[in-house]
Amino acid sequence: MIRWLLRLFLHLFVYPVIALFVLFLLAFHYIPQTKLREMAAEEIGRRLHRQIEIGRIHPGLRGLVIDDLRLSETPAFSSGTIISARGVRLGWDLRSLWEGLNVRKKFITRSRGSFHIDEFHNPHYSARDFSLTWSLSGMDPTWTRLSGWARLDQGPGLLENIDQLMATNPSAKLALAPVTMLMNLERTGFVKFGLPDLRRWPLQSIEGDYAFDNGLMHIKRFTIASAQLGMEASGVVELSSGKLSLDVELKSPSTTVLGALEIKTHVTGTVSHPQADLESLKKKAFRATFMNLLQDPQAGGKDVGDALKKLFRQ
């Protein structure tokens, strides 16, 4: 997830905004704010192949604040809105930018800064107090030399339309695969794990600590806190190829058939094609099914067999 977020914020916000920043400061006092926002929106939109609406901008030497911002799906708002945000703050360290500016290649190789959004919404996710801070070097299009660190923090959020999110986002599909298996079994009516309806999943907070070493992203800790279902992950991702090795743990409340579930799985493969080892999860689900049958023997038969077949096909 952090790899996707890092690329999203670098390409959608950091690179375009910083590239325009020097010109913007020079023009700020000579061009009306409305005209300047239109020019910035046109230039950034051209780079991103999307439409963008930019609210009032408050620039400074160490960053800028944008009151509100809307970004369309590709190619225009007629296709939908990918994100609407309020209270966008981008901060940077001028020395790191100067040291990392490659004028010949028109690329920034070093960056230290912060990105904060007071509140944002998209079709699948809404959240408050999202912050990303970083100190990176060796930045280039290949991602093979990237080194440094990053930290992700977020306040309360809400995941919605999970099925659609998993269909379009490999990272979401990867993270939610174990839960999907349990939900499929629970829908049969024979196993009541007490898991939340993933069509609406409120989150309390998200935290992540990441270290980068020559193109390897070490996920030291990634935690989703939720009263309904929590998640922790750690591992390594090779940014250039997407190869990964992650340990993921899901924690459910104590209201399930087996009490509080702690589901652990190891994930390999690539970001676009993850492969999760769900053997321990399948054993827990089988045990829960068996306990339900002991409580209600009349629930046995073909339907249970079909349920177990669906489980082990995951």
List the helices and strands and how they pair.
Blueprint: H1 2-28, H2 33-48, E1 52-54, E2 57-60, E3 63-72, E4 81-92, H3 94-100, E5 101-102, E6 107-108, E7 111-121, E8 125-137, E9 147-154, E10 157-160, H4 162-168, H5 170-187, E11 200-203, E12 205-213, E13 216-225, E14 230-238, E15 244-251, E16 262-269, E17 274-277, H6 279-295, H7 302-312
Antiparallel strand pairs: 1-3, 2-3, 3-4, 4-7, 5-6, 7-8, 8-9, 8-10, 9-12, 10-11, 12-13, 13-14, 14-15, 15-16, 16-17
Description:
- The structure is a single chain.
- The protein is an alpha+beta fold.
- It folds into two domains: 2-122, no CATH class; 162-312, no CATH class.
- The chain is built from seven helices and 17 strands.
- The protein has helices at 2-28, 33-48, 94-100, 162-168, 170-187, 279-295, 302-312, and strands spanning 52-54, 57-60, 63-72, 81-92, 101-102, 107-108, 111-121, 125-137, 147-154, 157-160, 200-203, 205-213, 216-225, 230-238, 244-251, 262-269, 274-277.
- It has a 15-stranded antiparallel sheet that branches.
